[in-house]
Amino acid sequence: HRLTKEEMKDRPNLVILGTGWASLCLLRKLYTDRYNVTIVSPRNYFLFTPLLPGTTTGTTESRSIMEPIRKYCRRSDADDVTFIEAECLQVDPVKKTVKCYDNSAVKGEVSEFELPYDQLVMGVGAESATFGIPGVKENACFLKEISDTRSIRDRMIDCFETAGYPGQPDAEIDRLLHFVIVGGGPTGVEFCAELNDFITNDVKKAFPKHLTDRCRVTLVEALPHILTVFDKNIIDHVEKKLQSSPTTKIWTQTAVTGVKEREMIVRDAEKKERSVPYGMLVWATGNAPRPVTQKLIQSIGPEVQNVRRGLVVDEYFRVKGADGIWAIGDCSVTPLAPTAQVASQQGRYLGRLFNDISEDLHQKKQGQMNDQEFTADLKKKPLFKYRHMGTLAYVGDKSAVFQIKDADNKTTTSEGLATFLLWRSAYLSKCLSIRNRVLVAFDWTKASIFGRDVSRG
Ligand code: FAD
Ligand code: NAD
């Protein structure tokens, strides 16, 4: 049922935080004429994260994996969506407001504001975990945002250019051309793969041999193996594959315990610490909750919010202990892994659920329905069902790995060129627009014909 003009005036205020996988997939399903929808996010675009590792080396261009959020906002007057580019600093679950701040370079007279909400969706994702290890924030590169891909590329090429200075001492060349990746999860492995491809296919052609011969890549993992989400045969295959590149070494059972400007401290399996010089260090050790998520967990209290990893939700993604707050994607805690696949399905589910319960939420706002009645109605709605499509990862040199478990927990795996083609076609089809699909396909073709650019900036 579509709301009448009269009903529209009193539509519930739905505030959505974030423009990532969870929030955008929700928005795309939502009948926006049933709510006053406001989206708040520090970036006015969606980022297709699976292709982020390749963007560091220019396999894909940054604009090809970005999708402007404004495209999804302007519909018609009735179902217009308001977007505000700001960072939410704090949620007040009692007053039902969000406090936001303009963290961009250009500031006007107003750079802080408060928004009231009836319903709030937390889709703020997670930040890179540093575990409080000294020097990581100050000295490491990360791989989470589009700006990170530029920093990594800039730093890497700069290392090569600086290593080529006349009179540069040998030890300094070795330091500058030592590229370290900390964390052997999918992010670290995919970045390592892209880096190997770039060095082998492009850097070696462009830079003098006496430099490229000395370039080393080290993947450091605290556990006995990398890619622990995969089956043993895949792990063995990937470890062999990455180390088959003469430049690459994997140090397992080695934890990085400190990062200085030019060296890192590692602790090996024998608990011995030593210092290792590096030119560029990329930190990819998984997720930690963002400050806004942490503050909300604290303000609700530890009786219900007792997991430090993120927001504890019920089976409908309602944040436990808070009225009118929902959480999806990497900022929520569920038994599922924090992946785009999960976040997008949760977003789509919640979008459909909001369509389904719009009248109830409308009545709740008008005081015509109490919490018990609302919950009783909600319990009649279908539950979220996750459909796992398998896990894919690029491992370099036109090879990828794939793994899927069936209903009987039987695992099927594949690897190699055919899986690489599957990886490419799967992610191409997952791009959210035809424009992005065309741009990504064009980038891949361009890189394979002309190679990747090795200039800085
Ligand atoms: P995000 O997509 O991170 O979106 C969070 C949004 O919230 C962003 O728009 C952000 O700007 C915004 N935000 C942040 N702080 C605030 C704030 N204070 N107020 C308001 N808004 C805020 N998963 C896969 O399934 N397959 C893959 O191949 C894959 N590859 C990956 C590769 C890399 C390099 C990385 C880093 C991740 C990859 N993932 C992959 C994981 C996947 O990206 C995440 O699980 C997914 O992005 C989670 O979606 P989300 O919406 O919860 O968070
Ligand atoms: P992760 O948590 O999967 O892996 C991080 C790794 O870093 C772990 O193996 C951990 O043991 C290691 N580590 C932690 N501290 C360390 C230290 N001090 N020294 C050395 N090693 C250390 O993190 P991720 O790879 O960033 O992935 C985050 C999420 O995103 C996961 O759910 C992942 O599945 C998803 N993701 C998926 C894909 C894909 O499907 N292709 C790609 C990227 C990310």
Automatic annotation (TrEMBL):
Enzymatic class: oxidoreductase
Chain ranges of the FAD/NAD(P)-binding domain: 13-347
GO MF, any single term: NADH dehydrogenase (quinone) (non-electrogenic) activity
Catalytic activity: a quinone + NADH + H(+) = a quinol + NAD(+); a ubiquinone + NADH + H(+) = a ubiquinol + NAD(+)
Keyword field contains NAD: yes
Domain External alternative NADH-ubiquinone oxidoreductase-like C-terminal residues, every copy: 388-453
The protein's Enzyme Commission number: 1.6.5.9
Protein keywords: FAD, Flavoprotein, Membrane, NAD, Oxidoreductase, Transit peptide, Transmembrane, Transmembrane helix
Chaperone among keywords: no
GO cellular component, one term: mitochondrion
Family listed: Belongs to the NADH dehydrogenase family.
Protein name listed in UniProt: NADH:ubiquinone reductase (non-electrogenic)
Residue span relative to the full protein: 102 to 558 of 558
